[in-house]
Amino acid sequence: MAPIRDKDLTTGIGSRDTAAVRKHPSVFKRLVYVYIGTSHYHADYKFYREVLDARLIWEFKEIGARVAAFDLCGEPYLLIADHVPAPSKRLIYQVEDLDSAARELKHRGWKPAGERFEVPDGPCLNFKDSSGNEFAILQMTRPHLLEKEFLKSRRGEGA
Asked: pTM score, two decimals?
């Protein structure tokens, strides 16, 4: 049995040394986004912005899709998207290198759901677990690009 380490601050339960039970080093660096489908974009936007008091990170409308990123309590950022069916959530994890992460995961029996595609932050692959829950892995080759563009556009509006 793995030794109990520090207590989890939220539950008070002692955590176990997870490195002792891992068979492989994790390819997942961190959870960066929770991608949330919306069928009522304006109402959901108002909910996150006004009711939850989340900070707007960026908002764009491109190719007929509206997407906004909110900072509720730091990363992961919450993304609402009107081109994604609601209700749904896709957890998007950063990996160091998309190709090597996909190779390693495929070696363990993982299958991508579709082909590699580009998002503003970099290349991405979707996948699902056996229950159909949606996930993605993302290589952050252009980290926070939309945030930078949004800030630049806001400065231009105020000039």
From this structure: 0.81
